[in-house]
């Protein structure tokens, strides 16, 4: 009996050795040229707050929204543990906002990455349906260096006005997820500009789980994700940012990091953080 228990214990060692958690962040950092010089919201002033928040959370993987590439350069200069991929939505290179992805170079290896447009022609620089602006999603595949496990990571930013574009964008992402291998592990972060009662959210929820709902430990209760820099204290914060995961993944914890620095906001959105079990 004792010999049998030893054999059973040894058989569990590979599983334990390859168990791996991934700390994931979604963060709309507010575009760099959108706030007036001389205000606390001006990027050169608040970039240090953003970098501090990221540094204290130490996520392994970050999906940024509204990130102009000079902002990404600023952040990575302060956070040298990260590598990144991102392309501007207006020219597929450096012009315009991006859905950039940052990742810990000591934890993850980037296997593939591309920018696609939320439109009828995703491979081309384009504006889709009734959208007000060009909108993109970043599609990547990573390998976790510790366990060797691979997974897919999508990061996106839906249009803020076009309702048809919001729904069609959700359906496009859902279709992209469904083309992946059946047992593939999928993560999706983004500013979706829709609330949980919306049709786009419901469409995505057919293929993926909202980490805020399935997390074993919910560190934030009823916490909204859009704060508008607190400019309208009478308006409640909206929940329009989400971290979705495929149904074969477990979420250990979910948090909305809504810290302030002496009353100052790092962004007009809060940072979302989820710990996902890759095993």
UniProtKB/TrEMBL annotation:
Annotated GO MF terms: 3'-5'-RNA exonuclease activity; endonuclease activity
Coiled-coil positions: none
Top-level taxon in the UniProt lineage: Bacteria
CDD domains registered for this protein in UniProt: EEP-1
Pfam families: Exo_endo_phos
Domain Endonuclease/exonuclease/phosphatase: 25-269
Gene3D superfamilies recorded: Endonuclease/exonuclease/phosphatase
Transmembrane segments: none
Keywords, alphabetical: Endonuclease, Exonuclease, Hydrolase, Nuclease
InterPro entries: CCR4/nocturin_mRNA_transcr, Endo/exonu/phosph_ase_sf, Endo/exonuclease/phosphatase
Protein name: Endonuclease/exonuclease/phosphatase family protein
């Amino acid at each position: 009996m004792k010999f049998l228990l030893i054999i059973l214990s040894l058989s569990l060692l590979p599983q334990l050795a390859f168990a791996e958690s991934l700390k994931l962040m979604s963060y709309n950092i507010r575009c760099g040229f959108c706030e007036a010089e001389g205000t606390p919201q001006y990027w050169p002033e608040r970039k240090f707050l953003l970098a501090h928040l990221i540094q204290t959370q130490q996520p392994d993987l970050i999906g940024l929204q509204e990130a102009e590439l000079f902002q990404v350069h600023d952040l990575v200069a302060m956070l040298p543990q990260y590598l990144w991929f991102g392309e501007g939505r207006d020219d597929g290179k450096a012009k315009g906002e991006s859905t950039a992805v940052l990742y810990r170079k000591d934890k993850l290896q980037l296997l593939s990455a591309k920018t696609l447009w939320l439109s009828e022609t995703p491979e081309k620089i384009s504006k889709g349906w009734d959208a007000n602006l060009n909108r993109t999603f970043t599609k990547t595949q990573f390998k976790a260096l510790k366990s060797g496990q691979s997974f897919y990571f999508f990061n996106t930013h839906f249009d803020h006005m076009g309702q048809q574009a919001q729904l069609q964008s959700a359906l496009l992402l859902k279709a992209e997820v469904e083309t992946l291998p059946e047992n593939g592990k999928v993560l999706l972060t983004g500013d979706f500009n829709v609330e949980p009662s919306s049709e786009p959210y419901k469409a995505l929820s057919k293929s993926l789980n909202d980490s805020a709902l399935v997390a074993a430990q919910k560190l934030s209760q009823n916490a909204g994700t859009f704060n508008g820099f607190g400019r309208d204290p009478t308006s409640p914060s909206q929940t329009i940012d989400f971290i979705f995961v495929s149904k074969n993944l477990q979420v250990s914890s979910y948090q909305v990091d809504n810290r302030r620095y002496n009353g100052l906001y790092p962004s007009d959105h809060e940072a979302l953080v989820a710990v996902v079990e890759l095993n």
